[in-house]
What we know:
By secondary structure, the chain is mainly beta. The protein has 1 helix and 11 strands; from the N terminus they run H-E-E-E-E-E-E-E-E-E-E-E. The chain has one domain: Sandwich (Jelly Rolls). It has a 5-stranded antiparallel β-sheet, with helices on one face. Strands 3-10-11 form a 3-stranded antiparallel β-sheet, with no helix packed on it. A 3-stranded antiparallel β-sheet has the order 6-5-8, with no helix packed on it. The protein binds fe (ii) ion. It holds the Pfam family CDO_I.
Amino acid sequence: MSLDLAPDTPATTPEARAPLTPSALRTIVRELAEQPEQWIHHVRLSTEERWYRRLAADDDHEVWLISWLPGQSTGFHDHGGSRGAFTVALGELEELSLGGTEQGLLIRRVQSGTVRAFGPDYVHDVRNTASGPAVTLHAYSPPLSSMAHYDLRAGGLVRTSEEGPDQW
Ligand SMILES: [Fe+2]
């Protein structure tokens, strides 16, 4: 079947909206953390794995609530090209990433109230190494479409698997 379109028919594909900046995402999670009445009643804890729930989603970003029991961690992962920000609303976490001129391992304590924001290529491992639970708020733009996992080996990060939205 052929479509007989006039040559001056405008394209119907909507223009992709520009993703929010890490700075804008930082503001979203910081302001949400200051309004616990918006999310604290949703929090659950799971001994099976990190518990998570999507709080909001629209065309250009989404917001997630995650709880972490002691010992729970993400492993090294990317965000499929999305920009992101997260804040620790309760408790504290540890964040591992590679950086510096030698791409060495950086370990950072992320205390309650701290906001971390990152660009589309960021890879990190977030873990609860404290003795009590933690609760975090995350924003991603565009909304997460995939997430690859990595192993940290002697030569650096090695991509091991990838998951999509049907797996979370
Ligand atoms: Fe992450």
